Amino acid sequence: MSLLCNPVNQAHIDDLKDRLSGHLVFAPYDPFDDTNELRVVRKLAGIVRAMDKGVLSPNAVQKSFTEHPIPGFCFERWLREMVEEGIYSDTALKGVA
């Protein structure tokens, strides 16, 4: 069962990438951290795509965002907003907390 109300529309992924990138701009910079910010954004967006395809549960995605935190970004808040906008069905929020 798809959690997406309209699986063809991928605008929420662009929204997610924009938000993650926006938060990373204001994240503290560590000159010794060679993590590529664009790679992190792409990886997290890919994890959300896996949820969209039913490969990962929302809870598993939440754990990924917890393991790879973006300062100021909350996956649960974003997901709740996407449910309110009709992107995801209410079932997407089950188990995410």
What does this structure look like?
With 97 residues, this protein is mainly α. The protein contains four helices and no strands. Helix 1 (11-25) packs antiparallel against helix 2. The longest helix has 16 residues, at 37-52. The radius of gyration is 13 Å and the shape is globular.
Distance between the termini: 21 Å
Number of strands: 0
Largest sheet: none
CA-atom Rg in angstroms: 13 Å
Approximate strand percentage: under 5%
Helix content: 40-55%
In short:
With 97 residues, this protein is mostly helical. 53% of the residues lie in helices and 0% in strands. It is globular.
Write the layout of secondary structure elements.
Elements: H1 11-25, H2 37-52, H3 58-67, H4 75-84
Helix pairs in contact: 1-2, 2-3
Keywords:
single chain, 97 residues, mainly alpha, 0% strand
